[in-house]
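User: I'm writing a tutorial on reading structure tokens. Could you give me a worked example: one chain, its sequence, then its tokens, then a sentence or two explaining what the tokens reveal?
Assistant: Sure. Here is the example chain.
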Amino acid sequence: MKIILTKVFLFGWLLLAVVVSGKAQNADQLGAVRSAISSGSSRNLAQYLGPSVEVGFDGDKQSYNATQTELVMKNFFTKNPPASFDIVHQGASNDGIPYAVGHYVGKTGNYQIFIKLKPKQSTPMIDTLDFTKE
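And here are its predicted structure tokens:
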């Protein structure tokens, strides 16, 4: 009986470690993206862009390649440099697609930013950036 309880206890700890590790990996991926947005660096953000990125500003969405997305973000950061950016919520869909919602405070206004990453990537690859002015 004691052996069974020990095995159940060890299995529980192992399961908890796997869950915490998965959440930490998503946090690390999003942390790199958060840092790039916080600094207002389109160049740093570009290293996390997928080959095709859907970018939206107040409901007007378009798909761009990574180079075009970098230019769009450079223009945005030039017109609206960041005062601060914080991730207020992050998680993953039922399909395992990591996402985050952030609050961006800039020169010309505040924005809520939705960031969706491509699933199952070892490094973050941004699939969607959606800015909504508050």
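What the tokens reveal: The chain has one domain: 2-133. The beta strands are 49-57, 60-65, 82-92, 98-106, 109-117, 126-133.
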